Amino acid sequence: MYKNYFKTALRNLLKHKIFSLINIIGLAIGISAALVIYLIVSYDFGFNKLQNDDEHIYRVVSNFSYQGQPSYNSGVPVPLGLAVKTEVTGLDVVAPFYGYGYEGKITVDSAKGTPKVIKKQEHIIVTDGSYFDLLNYKWLAGSRAQAFASPNQVVLTAKQASLYFPHLGYANIMGRQVIYEDTLRTTVAGIVEDLKVKSDFAFHDFISLKTADTHKGMLQDYTNPNWGSTSSSNQLLIKVRPDASLDAVKKQLNALYIKYRDKKDQTPGYTHEFGLQPLNDIHFNSRYDAFDGRQANKTVLYSLLGVAAFLLILGCINFINLTTAQSVQRAKEIGVRKTIGGTRKQLIGQFLTETFVLTVIATLLSALIAYYLLQLFGNFIPKDITYSMLFTREVYIFITVLILVITLASGLYPAMVLSSFIPVQVLKGYDVNGKNRGSTLRKTLTVTQFIIAQFFIMATLMVGSQIHYALSKDLGFSKDAILYINTPFKYSGTHKKELLAQKIAAITHVKQTAIGGPAPSASGSWSTHLKYVDGKKEIETEVFIKNGDEHYMNVYKLRLLAGRTLEARDSATKAFVINETYAHVLGFKNPKDAVGKMLDNESKVPIIGVVKDFYQTSLHTPIKPVAIITNRRSNYYNVHVALQPKSGKSWSEAIAQMQSAWKEIFPEEEFSYTFVDESVAKFYKAEQDTSKLLNWATGLSILISCMGLLGLAIHSTNQRVKEIGVRKVLGASVSQIVTLLSADFVKLIIIAFAIALPIAWYAMHQWLQRFAYHTQISWWIFAGAITSTLFIALLSMSMQTVKAALANPVKSLRSE
């Protein structure tokens, strides 16, 4: 019986080639999207599953608030770790660790006897054995007990050990030297297996915490007793006992801060509290950074699932529409089957088998489409996701379930409808009530398809409009034709950096150079609290500091509203140039009134100028009070270069000369540079990725919807052949016939637009609230959506409607 089901199914698919092809392509697109999205979602939701009881592991984080404005930091004060170990109850493990902020060269013993130099190694931490009590590492050499018992010892992961000491066994690696920064000499005291699960804990060098007791460079950083200093480099993990109360643990943590903080540092309106971040939240919560830098967004992941569901629904709608539309053509077949004894159960089995065969073919095709989707979105998806991941047991299970669900979702209703036909009545195409079967359902499903398609179009236009607004908006400073060069942090003082700036300034195609901190708009920030006393009241404000020499403001063309710019004599923070926002916070409506006023920064410092507001970060956050200073005692680490207007290869030649100057001053360091406009564009990477996703989803949804519309147009014109012939004989023109055949579908698209418009408007309004500064929802977004949908729909139908309108009426009227 089942063999006959499959033979009949294949025969029917081949008999109705066009409809079968439309269904297969529509489902294949939806299934391929579902496969790729499944890989992405399962990959990200699979992070940090380190052990069976990882729900009891938390990261202690810092939550700040100043005058109602919250801020967050994934780090804690250095002394908290030791205090928690000795004074907090309810914990099984306390594991402090500290980022070793060095990315220069690492020197290791070579098997050939000559030192081997390795550069650009990140993810190095300083910790003790408690870290390995918490995370599930397997020891391949050495032991937790002895590896951290002494200073100047390091534990490596197996992958890192192979990088440092290729072709050596673990036993031979033990005891060899790894030298960091030319000054920190460590001995390999252990090797652990790399974590087999996906994890944000990407660390591979673990330096013993006892090293900080003897190494001068680490002593200040990792034994700092200051409770008022918080850095994301200082992290604390804890494992809470199952029977302990989280609220009780948090109360003890905050009690420690109140107990040990310096009472002089207390500021009215300022709070600092510790929170507990669950281990599985680290990969998703952008308030607190992840250790390897990359974080996923749950909203985006759920949106991806929604896109996959919508595309699958569109494919299923096509199948239901076209199958029920073909009901009249299959009425005779059903009537004959029932006449010779076929049961309804057997007919349902036959139709579901046809759906199953079609879905399997679509799934095989989707595997090929998925390969190209992965290539297309290589910059959007995590680099660890590869095409080979499709051929795993988990994906096979997912595909099997997906095929069964699609078979039932697409095929069950048409199977129930077709198998319920009463042979005598259905030969005329009407049900027992005398109404044309399935017409209302098909219209409803077609409207649903175009609601989804038009929603995607509107969302795509809105996201693109906001990205254009962000990238083209006047940011208050010049970002074009400017690049900055990160100088090695380990070189103290500014002598070499100033020398590099001077050499670069002498290059023909360079307009001007400056040295200082980050660009005016940058991801990192440095803030402090400044006081202003006007004789009646005291105003204390958190102020973000921008550090640059006397040329910094000129390079970025910061617009001076009052006073003067910084000069060399203003070094060592002897003067402030503030922004408009800060002047207004201090109560000055006219920028000129702020010039000459004094701010308290341990000593009285004058305001010498006010600049027009500029954006310090992305448009997601509002402009905040800023003070620009010149501090030559600070460790300047950027050289900012304004280039002459581009002409031919002028920029590439200038950059090549910059690299030559770099090699003269820093011969052992790698040269790199970043254009400011590119760094600003990175602020909106999430939005740009969303835009790419929406473009893709919009294109696929329109393709699937229009293919379904084409199928219905073919069915409709086939059903109205005689009517078209009669109308042409009576004098109807081709344009009138085309309009007649298209009118019903155009009405459905307009109805879909009327439903999609308020839904899209609300979704776009909510999305725009993520930005402190955003564009408006314009009328052209909705006009563009309906216009483009109608144009594409009419274009897709035209090949069939025009063909029907041009057909010879004699043939159609003679057919009976």
Automatic annotation (TrEMBL):
All copies of the MacB-like periplasmic core domain together span: 20-255, 445-660
- Annotated keywords: Cell membrane, Membrane, Transmembrane, Transmembrane helix
Lipid bilayer topology = Multi-pass membrane protein
**Compartments where found:** Cell membrane
Q: Superkingdom of this entry's organism? A: Bacteria
Would the keyword Aminoacyl-tRNA synthetase be found if you checked this record's keyword annotation? Answer: no
> What InterPro entries does UniProt report for this protein, alphabetically?
ABC3_permease_C, MacB_PCD, Macrolide_Exporter_MacB
TM segments? 21-41, 300-322, 355-375, 395-424, 445-464, 693-714, 745-765, 777-795
- Domain named ABC3 transporter permease C-terminal: residues: 307-419, 699-803
Name the UniProt record assigns to this protein: ABC transport system permease protein
